[in-house]
């Protein structure tokens, strides 16, 4: 996330961001990266929403049926099983596929 140059797109149904994720988003935001986060409708707490809306360059979108987990920074795309949940980051063993999209290299 912090290596994003122009855009960062996160599609994930459930969000409860850890300090690591929030710090990475802040770095991207401070670098002028356009952040788009798509989450499942009615699955973002007010506390999490307020943390994210503190970022200057964020677009929060929601959809009632989002279940995929995709993370894209303009160069790299990760499709995997991990939600942006601190519990998942610390306790779960997740799987994903990293793909270089070849856009800016």
Strand order of the largest sheet: 4-3-1-5-6-8
Task: Indicate the CATH class.
Answer: Alpha Beta
Mean pLDDT: 92
Instruction: Give the overall shape, derived from the CA principal axes.
Output: globular
Beta-strand content estimate: 25-35%
Radius of gyration over all CA atoms, rounded = 13 Å
Q: Report the biggest beta sheet as strand number plus sense, adding barrel if it closes.
A: 6 strands, mixed
Q: What is the number of helical segments per DSSP (H or I, 4+ residues)?
A: 3
Ranges where pLDDT stays below 50 over 5 or more residues in a row are none
Please name the CATH architecture: 2-Layer Sandwich
State the end-to-end CA separation: 17 Å
| Order of H and E elements | EEHEHEEEEHE
**SSE-based structural type:** alpha/beta
- Compute the number of structural domains: 1
- List how many beta strands DSSP finds: 8
Q: CATH H-level name... which superfamily?
A: Endonuclease Chain A
What is the CATH third-level topology name?
A: Endonuclease, Chain A
Level of helix content? 10-25%
Written account of the structure:
- With 105 residues, the protein is α/β, with parallel strands linked by helices.
- It has a single domain (7-100), classed as Endonuclease, Chain A.
- The protein contains three helices and eight strands.
- The chain has helices spanning 19-30, 46-53, 86-91; strands at 7-11, 15-16, 34-40, 58-63, 70-72, 76-80, 84-85, 96-100.
- The strands form two sheets. It has a six-stranded mixed beta sheet, with helices on one face. A two-stranded parallel sheet has the order 2-7.
- The model has no long low-confidence stretch (mean pLDDT 92).
């Amino acid at each position: 996330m912090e290596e994003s140059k122009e855009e960062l797109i996160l599609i994930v149904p459930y969000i409860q961001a850890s300090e690591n994720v929030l710090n990475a988003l802040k770095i991207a935001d401070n670098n002028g990266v356009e952040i788009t986060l798509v989450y499942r409708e009615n699955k973002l707490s007010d506390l999490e929403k307020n943390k994210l809306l503190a970022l200057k360059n964020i677009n929060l979108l929601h959809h009632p049926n989002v279940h995929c987990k995709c993370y894209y920074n303009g160069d790299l795309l990760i499709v995997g099983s991990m939600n942006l949940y601190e519990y998942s980051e610390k306790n779960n063993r997740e799987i994903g596929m990293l793909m270089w999209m070849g856009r800016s290299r």
